[in-house]
């Protein structure tokens, strides 16, 4: 366990400039405004600096998160009519079969307002639904032991999300 803690400390020390309090500026805006090649190069470079070997499985999750921010985080309200509709689409882990309709396959797992997308738990729930067929939580944490959302944000140097890590409770999304 000490080796893993030392490795996490090394990663956090390397990426120290990113370890700021969660920003109020939604990461969806940054992802939309930054060329994808630049984001991917930043992720590759930062992963190399901290010694994380990224595989195609890692890149699949990373691309999903970036696509989700770019296409499924509306600037205003995502259009849910009531809380139950919101729960079925975002929080429920049961995936109802439905077509994306707008050509954006990634949005079939839910839409968030740009403000909601600053909460790590909401983004994490969408990730769980998207990768449920590959093992969900277990699959994501095998790829990103320190939390998929937290790690992707660190590597891409996106603002931290609210409640992304709680060392006192032992959670990292």
Automatic annotation (TrEMBL):
User: Which Gene3D superfamilies does the protein's record reference?
Assistant: DsrC-like protein, C-terminal domain
Q: Which domain of life is it from?
A: Bacteria
Can you say what this protein is called?
A: Uncharacterized protein
What is the organism of origin for this protein?
A: Thiolapillus brandeum
Classification of source organism: Bacteria, Pseudomonadati, Pseudomonadota, Gammaproteobacteria, Chromatiales
